[in-house]
Amino acid sequence: MEIRQNSRDFLRHVLLAVGSLMMFFPFLWTVLSSLKDISQIFVVPPQWIPDPFVWSNYPASLEAMPFVQAYMNSFYITVIIVTATLISASMAAYAFAKIRFPGSNVLFILFLATMMVPKQVTMIPLYLVMDRIGWLDTHWSLIVPGALFNAFAVFLLRQFVMGIPRDLEEAAVMDGAGYIRIYWSVILPLVRPALAAIGIFTFLGAWNSFLDPLIYLNTPEKFTVPLLLNNFKGLYTADWSLMMAGTTISVVPVLIVYMIAQKQIIEGITLTGIKG
Q1: Which of 153, 177, 202, 232 could form a disulfide with 172 if both were Cys (CB 3.0 to 4.6 A apart)?
Q2: pLDDT tens-digit profile of 29-57?
Q3: According to its record, how does it sit in the membrane (predicted)?
């Protein structure tokens, strides 16, 4: 019996290792291609190790496009979206999980139903709304929808809040605390792991977002990093070496955030009952 279990564990680890290598392959190809000249990238058979290493691709990519401005744009947009999402989603999750009001369950189901609507369906109506209120070619068109309409974050946090014992709320009420005080002093400290997981997911989504900036932004000085990388691709040709170098640079903040908070991601997802 033990031998059979060990065989299953070994096979499971082999499959996970193969899957990890398959997912790591595109990133490895990107990093290696960022150190090649254009003649080495598409050579057949593939040349994995650059010969020579073209380190000049990195400063050249930073000089070819206004990357510093794009980084600043992506950074402050992402920080605002993450902060606003954590506040709004946690407040909504607390209301749906602990506050009983007429139609709360129906409203929550309708709120979750928005997750089933494809983004392509809402692109044109949302574009018309942004045009009507004058937010086209501004960062508000990226910040407000991304920060205030995250049904997945509300759902994830609600599952966590529902697991908090009601005795803690009752004790706070006996001490004279209202809804706001309970939310701030009782709920928020206890949902910290889930907030960390939601913060990481939101950060990754906002930092890597390409479609929304492509739709709403026209001025190069307002571009985010993913949108600016697209400028390396011309009508008839593309500077793949500089694009790969710029892409590698753009991945660095994501890797740093993940390395710092990977424990919180796993803990938050596990404690909310959502398992892959």
Answers
A1: 177
A2: 888 888 888 888 878 787 788 888 888 88
A3: Multi-pass membrane protein
